[in-house]
Amino acid sequence: MSNCNTLSRIALESGAIRFNPDKPFIWASGYKMPIYNDNRLLLGKPEYRSFISKLFARLLEDLAQNIDVIAGTATAGIPHATTLADILKKPLIYVRASAKSHGMGNQIEGPLAPGQNVLLIEDLISTGGSAINAVNAIRKKGGIVNFCFCIFSYGFTEAHKKFDEINCQYHSLLTFKTLLKEAESLQLLSNGQIESLRSWNKDPFNWAETKGFK
Q1: Sign of CA dihedral 67, 111, 115, 138
Q2: pTM score above 0.85
């Protein structure tokens, strides 16, 4: 079994990723979607956290990049950035959605010097907004960010476009297509549900209306 298949199975068995094309989830954006991701459930077992960090480390090795600092997005990216920083024995920082309104007024917590190469860790990338906000914050402080890693990505065109615009690559350990293939092999979904999910992947933001969900 490949690492992607193993991670797919872990995500499905833990409930970190759930499918329900017959009764869609309502996302924070208000859209009705047949999939929901809560990677916080992956924090429950040390073997899950260890496996994910090792996959991040291997991905970084494949890209042959010299990284000085590991950064996590607050809050969901922090634990995975921490385990990766521990493996690589690198400094750790984390990036808030916005600067604090009190104290030092920091948006970035932890040691960061201008010119340091930073790898950003996010748990999930959908449209990419929160990760790109973190990239921009690090760059504003003089950090160099060319890569963002995440556990799971929906693969939305909007996210790819946004990352291209800021000249930053993002890489996901797990993609929707790999996940759906594993769910199919485990016979977790009917043929009709699989086809519904494939149609969602082609046009996610119009899917609910097309299917008649109000």
Answers
A1: positive
A2: yes
Contact 77, 122 (CB under 8 A): yes
Structure tokens at 112: 């960061």
- Provide CB contacts within 8 A for 12, sequence distance 6+: 179, 182, 183, 186, 188
Element (H, E) at 169: strand 169-175
pLDDT value, residue 41:
97
Q: How many CB atoms lie within 10 A of CB 82?
A: 17
d(CA 128, CA 111): 25
Report the distance separating Cα 90 and Cα 70, nearest Å: 7
Domains and CATH numbers, the chain: 3-211 (3.40.50.2020)
- Which residues are CB-neighbours of 25 under 8 A, at least 6 positions away? 18, 32, 33, 34, 35, 36
